[in-house]
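[Meeting: bench + compute handoff]

Bench side (C.D.) handed over the final construct sequence. Compute side (W.E.) agreed to return the predicted structure before the next meeting so the bench team could plan truncations. Sequence as handed over:
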Amino acid sequence: MPDRHLLPDHRFGNVPINGRIKQWAATAPPPDHAGILHRWELYNDARTLTAVAAFTVLTLRKTTAHPTAENAAEDVLISAAGPAPSA
């Protein structure tokens, strides 16, 4: 097992709550178990929404067209030439 000081610090979110819930298997759940489970669900929902948002941003970033240097140079030439003559 790696040294304890090399492991990430998990004092936030679901991890401390998961530790409490594991103890319930050996003992009776505490009187406020519904509140603890509700807090776990809130953290889980926040983590899931964050992951979905990050995936959406990355997907949109990769699938939307970005101007290339060639297109940008062409746009500059067109705007420098002035408006196209009307027919």
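W.E. noted at the follow-up: The chain is about 65% helix and 0% strand. C.D. will use this when planning the next construct.
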